[in-house]
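Researcher: Here's the sequence for the chain we discussed earlier.
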Amino acid sequence: MSSPETHQTPYEAILDQEIETGLEELNRSTTGIFLSALSAGLDIGFGPLLMAVMVTLAGGSYSVATTEILVANMYAVGFIFVVLGRSELFTEHTTLAVLPVLGGQATVKQLGRLWMLVYSANVVGGAAFAVLMVTIMPSVGTIEPHAFEEIALTYTTQDIVTLVAGGVLAGWMMGLVSWLVSAAQESISRTFFVWLVTTAIGLAHLPHCIAGNVEIVAGLMASSEVVFMDYAEFLLAATVGNAIGGTVFVALLKYGHVVRGSQ
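Model: Thanks. This is the structure I predict for it:
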């Protein structure tokens, strides 16, 4: 009888798949990358939207722990839409697109082009979704403006060192999402891994630059407690932290241990 380990995807196969996918993205047209990343920035906004709905519905009726768990599960929805929909998300590419560069199959210039396009389109799409959300949802009656403020203050009350450090952990975990999705054999397994990791990010209040972009822009529009400097500080710190986490703690380490292990 074969052991369960025989059904696991080998490390080398995961790395090869990650590199192949990264090369495909690096070689896509500028328009294709931008539109896909714009779509990701918009789609990820459904997570913060549902978080605000949940905060409004909870309204102090549940314990803090129960509310936090429910809100964290809503946070994961946007990531499920984006990752399984195969849209371009910046924090995935801090790992995915770095691997072909480490293997000498792509250049740093190509990586920089991809990061710039994906990041800018993600931010634009997320900001547009936030504007739409804050404009429409309170009128619908499912979100109260204080919910946007409450979510945004979770991050804007943190100092910049804490944001960078938390961003490293969030980027690390998002890099693992890319690795785990490649290792998974079925859509259900992939969905589970995305849900598990991103719910954990939401529950721990770790800053994710793209999802957080939606959250902070919404708070900026809905509350005088959130100012533009809060937004700028958050975006800078979370982006730096996410890039370090995905590049160093996933791309470099995973690539290193697979390549060294096969020698």
